[in-house]
Hints:
mainly beta, seven-stranded antiparallel sheet, 1 helix, globular
Amino acid sequence: MCEPQLVYMRSCPIASYDAVISAGFPSPAADYVEGRIDLSEVLVPHPSATFTLRISGHSMTRAGIHDGDLAIVDRSLTARHDDVVVAVLDGELVCKRLLVRRGRYYLAPESDDRAYQVIDVTDRRDFEVWGVVSATIRIHRG
């Protein structure tokens, strides 16, 4: 298991445009700045209960979580059905979707690869939810 390192996110206000941008065909958009948003406020509403982890692997690609993404994990949120969580299972950290069905708890991958299977964690002593993934960050150009 890895030791956490504290990373401080200072205020980061950036311009925010009141416009919708097309990812398909071009469309005219309003060209005015709405104001400023602070990414630390948007991404980390509970700083004392939040940590980040780098995602490794491909088991959550259908959820939009890819290898190398940075997961923002909030420990102050109570995990509920259909949340993406970071959990400890067999001494390893995993990122999976939490499913609750008929009083049973499952960790489910979101991948088209059949090598990744749903795991029933209902009665396992080696299972603990560490937090809920509240956001992910993907760097498109380094």
